């Protein structure tokens, strides 16, 4: 099994043109390993969300290469890329985007249903994750009836349901109080992270740092510092 | 994906009901107004509907309907009978004629003079009396709607006694006796419809002694009706039409009144109202869900998948709204049955309304699809 889950080489990205041009990423080189919880930190505008968008293939880099699980994403057609992401990638968005007209279990099962799995199989798989998250009693509730912390757990379960090997979280603690924030980080560390999965968290919340195996600091579109030891 | 599309559609109850209402209203307006229009059109050719036996109608070239009839010379009947392929041909006279009821009211009736010998052209649905009683002196058969309505005897206390068998009327200063009551297809005008024999017809209407209104004829089996019509048309002063051709001539004459434009505008209004309501609410509903469509894209959903979801949603509201609208129209049709209101709902109207509702659904879905396909999962990041 390839140990490097995400490999970025010379990734560049800019927004706007001429006098409005902003270089969001300036030749980023980065490797993210399986079995590690990596934090991507930095001030607003440092380029961390842009880098996350490129890693999730939502954005295409202007230059450079992105390898996910050893596959060069620039070399495969759009349809295959979508299929690849559906199989191997899990995303937890900052605003979660839980669909309010679906129940909790249906929200979690969504990636599998999109992948064409049967509703039965998808919801059974979702139920297993809900049990791990200690939320099985809320499986048929509306996500709107849950607390912010519970909603965050549902979003994490949705990102895991396809057995994703790369899981990325965008500011998972930003809308949570200290206790819930720490609970979510503990969950990511204890239930989500395993030897086959790489977890990448974008954050600027310093309370999360003790949970990381590795912290990458970004500023002005560049990686400026890297802490390689846990804590 | 179908269940996901349905849940996203039904989950937002207010919007769902709003879109449904739009489609329902469009279906109701379009199908109901069209059914009334078709009902009125069918009334315009009620004579042809109620006299189904002849395959050819012969008339003066100036005649365009059974309402305003220019008479032909009597001798035309023999000319028509002599044409090869004609199985039988009989006279049918039609005229608008004044009459005075038992209570002294003045009315204009449509009087049909049918062939005394064969009685072809007599009403098919007799409620009281026998057709052969038309041979009695001054014998007439009256339609039941008029017998219960304009021809009923009005009393000073406001009550009415329907016209009955044996009652007398004064037709154009001649005494007429009711020998039968019949049920007919209602006409466009609420005038009394009266049947009598040709000889009595001539007495009632002294101007028609040597004139024929129509000759109705039947071709022999295996004879091309159109060819026989062409042969009759070769004679001067005669116009022969098949049953369908005469029906269309009457419809065309009727449409000159501008009724098609009036009802067409109602149908157009139904389309505009339905599309405005359904399209707008469906679009707003899509906008409310736009981030979830972006999410589906981000989770690996393809454009086709999202397209399918929106089309399914539009079709589901279309089908439910259409069924409710058609149901309401049919209920309305049932409710007005037996009244003077016109209503005709052939299967073609179902198809016509279905096509317009489908068009509304396509336009509604198209508006939303345009917006959804422009949505980029980028919008999900950093928000």
Q: What features would you describe in this structure?
A:
- The complex is a heterodimer of chains A (231) and B (383).
- Chain A has helices spanning 48-55, 78-88, 104-114, 119-132, 148-160, 178-192, and strands at 4-15, 22-33, 37-41, 63-68, 71-72, 89-92, 166-170, 198-203, 214-219, 222-227.
- With 231 residues, chain A is an alpha/beta fold.
- The mean pLDDT of chain A is 88.
- Chain B is α+β, with helices and mostly antiparallel strands.
- Chain B folds into 2 domains: 2-44 and 258-380, no CATH class; 61-237, no CATH class.
- Helix content of chain B is 49%, strand content 20%.
- Chain B is built from 12 helices and 14 strands.
- In chain B, helix 2 runs antiparallel to helix 12 and helix 11 (303-335) packs antiparallel against helix 12.
- The longest helix of chain B is centred in the last third of the chain and has 33 residues, at 303-335.
- Chain B is elongated, with a radius of gyration of 29 Å.
- The A-B interface holds A 49, 52-53, 56, 58-59, 79, 82-83, 85-86, 91, 93-95, 97, 99-102, 106, 110-111, 113-115, 119, 170 and B 1, 3-4, 7-8, 10-12, 291-292, 294-296, 298-302, 305, 376-378, 380-383.
Mean pLDDT of chain A: 88
Largest sheet of chain B: 6 strands, mixed, barrel
> Measured on Cα atoms, how large is the radius of gyration of chain B?
29 Å
Q: Strand percentage of chain A, roughly?
A: 25-35%
By secondary-structure content and strand pairing, the structural class of chain A works out as: alpha/beta
Cα-atom Rg of chain A, whole angstroms? 17 Å
Helix content of chain B: 40-55%
CATH topology description of chain A: Rossmann fold
